[in-house]
Amino acid sequence: MFNKRFMQFIGSMFALLAVPALALADEAPKINSGDTAWMLTSTALVLMMTVPGLALFYAGMVRSKNALSVLMQCFAITGLITVLWYLYGYSMAFDTTGMAKGVTNLYSFVGGFSKAMLSGLTKGSLVGGIPESVFITFQMTFAIITPALIVGAFAERMKFSAMLIFMTLWVTVVYFPICHMAWSGDGALYWDWGVLDFAGGTVVHINAGIAGLVAALVLGKRKGYPRTPMPPHNLTYTVIGASLLWVGWFGFNAGSAVAASGDAGMAMLVTQIATGTAALAWMFAEWIAHGKPSVLGIASGAVAGLVAITPASGTVAPFGALMIGIAAGVICFLAATKLKRAIGYDDSLDVFGVHAIGGIVGAILTGVFGIKAGGGFADGASIASQVWIQTKGVLVTVIWCGVASFILLKIVGALVGLRVSEEQEEEGLDIVEHDEKAYNIS
């Protein structure tokens, strides 16, 4: 009798112990406050990269009569993409419901519209351990800065109305699909092929750089280029902008871990190493080539390093970051100077030379320096095979973006015209497009 009661007692104790475990198993996923705090911070940092970072970086490099026009373009793009992201951009980039329905081919390239106007979003919606609202806003800041980067290629000559129409079409046809292919969880670039792009080498920088080159070629050169000197009007603005980009980029790269984790910490470290190295590499390359190092050169080198480490920041070790920084600084310097002069295109602020070339360098070297342990290479690929996978990703992005950008520019040109007149260009876009001056001297 005693033994029977004793066994019943023991059984009841196990049952009581099991209740909390069962309750925990049934609980809904909870917000991780540490991860959420980091992602809120990262989102603010990335938005700072466009306004004021990129806006000041570009505004300082143009002539004073066009400074406000560049600031206005960056600011307007920030508002425009915010609205488009809410209406349908987030859905096109991250809706994966088509996979559940078996529509695999289409949904490898672009999402659907089940999340249009953020349908289904609540305060309790989670992505991993963070609110989906935070994830949406974080990704929105990436969508904002990408078209804003293109502004530097056609600065001082594109109509403001044409810019707004082109950017609306471009993010819809180019950015949202490439973003889906790389980051959605079912896209062709990563999930089908194994292309590694941790924070946007292809999605952001190659995309923007190729679109910038196409825009520069379609619009043609600025009046007087290259015979007439067109020096930056305020390098102080440019250095301040570059500094804000440098600081904000920690949100860009380390934030792409979507957690306050070891991956975020390593991404931050390798970002700093690559950036500092690239800044020095560009400086010394320019010093050797031209006899003196310039402030514009070291700032441009830092941005080149930031661009190149972006796709690799989740998979490379510090030594790999150092090598990527050296390569980015030297190769982007050559692209922005010698290649630009050899081909003769007028990319006003070297968007192609820094962002497309830097993005390509970083994307390919991700295949060289990525770390297998911890998921560096997809499916245990060798260095040679991963380099080929990375190269395929670059080629798809270049072709998709290049062809689509050309067609869209031609459409916009037919609708409203792309360029201001020569007389208006001479007067400056600040007055012509916005009836304002950066400096009012009485």
Structural overview:
- The protein has one domain (31-434): Ammonium transporter AmtB like domains (Ammonium transporter fold), CATH 1.10.3430.
- Helices cover 71% and strands 1% of the residues.
- The protein contains 17 helices and two strands.
- α7 runs antiparallel to α15 (383-416), α10 (235-254) runs parallel beside α12 and α14 runs antiparallel to α15 (383-416).
- Residues 12-26 have low confidence and may be disordered.
Question: Count of helical segments?
Answer: 17
Structural class by sheet pairing and helices: mainly alpha
**Tally of strands:** 2
Instruction: Profile the largest sheet.
Output: 2 strands, antiparallel
Name the CATH class: Mainly Alpha
Shape: globular
Classify the fold: give the CATH topology: Ammonium transporter fold
Q: What's the order of the H and E elements?
A: HHHHHEEHHHHHHHHHHHH
What is the total domain count? 1
CATH architecture: Orthogonal Bundle
Strand content: under 5%
What is the spatial order of strands in the main beta sheet? Answer: 1-2
* pLDDT averaged residue by residue: 90
